[in-house]
Specification:
CATH superfamily of the largest domain: Urease metallochaperone UreE, N-terminal domain
Shape: elongated
CATH architecture of the largest domain: Sandwich
Largest sheet: 4 strands, mixed
Radius of gyration: 18 Å
Number of domains: 2
Strand content: 35-45%
CATH topology of the largest domain: HSP40/DNAj peptide-binding domain
Mean pLDDT: 92
Order of helices and strands: EEEEEEEEHEEHE
Structural class: alpha+beta
CATH class of the largest domain: Mainly Beta
Distance between the termini: 35 Å
Low-confidence stretches: none
Number of strands: 11
Number of helices: 2
Length: about 150
Amino acid sequence: MILTKVYRNVDDIPNIGSYHIETAMVKSDDLMKNILRVKTDHGNEYGIRLEDENSILENGSAFKLDDKKLLVLSVIPDEIIVITPKDINQMGLVAHFLGNLHKPVQIKDGKISLMLDKVVVKMMKKKDIDYKIEKIKLDEPLEYLDLTK
């Protein structure tokens, strides 16, 4: 079966208990894809080909299989570096360094998050910049900064 349209996010479905749910575990990188093949916890395989190129997949994206069945995407937790610069100077240094490495990031609440990378960890230690490594289930894929938006 090829699924072409996201129904809703599972968190936004009011009568979720009335559905039979199959869950497919996906990597956070898979959320950037418009075409994807998944295998569910029930052993079923489905193809996803989003017909609307503006549609995005996210943790909890639900597809209707029939009136009472849903396929829900669940993101596998990733090892993420969460960097907390102490001031604007450190923020500039980190942003410059990560930009030169062309790393996709998420910037939120004064913190920079990216996939675990030993080179980045080494640099944070060398420059005495606060960071921690966490297992995080990303709701959206990390992105490259797009200055055209």
